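Internal ticket - ligand job 242, IPE:
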Amino acid sequence: MKKEIDGEELNIPEHVAIIMDGNGRWAKKRLMPRNFGHKAGANTVEQICEDAYNLGIKYLTVYAFSTENWKRSVEEVTGIMNLLRKYLSNAYERASANNMRVRVIGDRSALDADIVELIDKLEKDTEVFDGLHFTIALNYGGRDEIKRAVQDIAERVKSGELEPADIDEKLISATLDTKELPDPDLMIRTSGEYRISNYLIWQLAYTEYYFTDVLWPDFDIEELKRAIRYYNGRDRRYGGVK
Ligand code: IPE
Ligand code: IPE
Ligand code: MG
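stdout (C-alpha cells):
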C-alpha cells in the first residue's frame, strides 16, 4: 500500500515486526528499577499500535517476552507478567476503538492460568476486527515454535494423515504459531543491539532489518516513519536479479 507521509509518497510495509529492546537501560539511565522501564515500554506499545494503524500498517507483531527471559529475576518476571495482566484486561476498549484484532503467539503452557484466560478472551472478543492485526509474542522463541511445529507434524505422520514427502515449506509455515500472518516485511530492533535473539527465525528469512539506538520507551511515530523511509530505500530481490 502507498501512502503520502510528510509530503513523500511511501510504500507502507504490510507487516512490521518489532524487538522492543532497551527498557532496562532506559530505567537505569533514570536511576530507576528495571520494571519502571517496562511500564514505560508498555505505554509505548499502545501508542505505536495507534500510529501503525494510522500509517496504514496492516500487521504489527511485537516481542514482549522470550523463552529466554525467564532467566531474569523473579521480581522482574513478576513485574512484566503483571503489566501484561493489566494490558490484557484493558485492551478490549482500545481494540474496538482502533478496529484492532489481537493475537498472542508463543508457548502458553508455562503462563499462569489467569493470563491464559485473559488471552483466550481477548483473542475471541477481537476476532471480528480487521483494521490492525496486532500480535504479541509471549513466552515466544523461534526455535521453540519450530520444535512444537515439528512435533505436531511428526504426530500427523505417525497417525498416517501425512507422508514425509508431504512436508513442504508451506506446510511448515501453516503449522507455526504465525500461520494466520504473512511473513514480516520490515523488522525493527531498538536499543542498538544487532541480533535476532530467537525472534521469528523462520518468518524473517527475507525481511528487511532496521536497527536503531533509540531505547524502546523513547520510540515514537517519528522513529517509525524513519524506519519506513529506510524500508523504501531497500531493493528486495528475493534471490533474483533486478
Ligand atoms: C526489553 O527490554 C523488554 C524485555 C526483554 C521484556 P530489556 O528489559 O531487555 O532492556 P535492556 O536490554 O536490559 O535495556
Ligand atoms: C529480546 O530482548 C526479547 C524481547 C525484546 C522480549 P532481550 O533483551 O531478551 O535479548 P538479548 O538478551 O539482548 O539477546
Ligand atoms: Mg534487552
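Auto-summary: Helices lie at 23-29, 34-55, 74-97, 113-125, 142-158, 169-173, 221-232. The mean pLDDT is 97.
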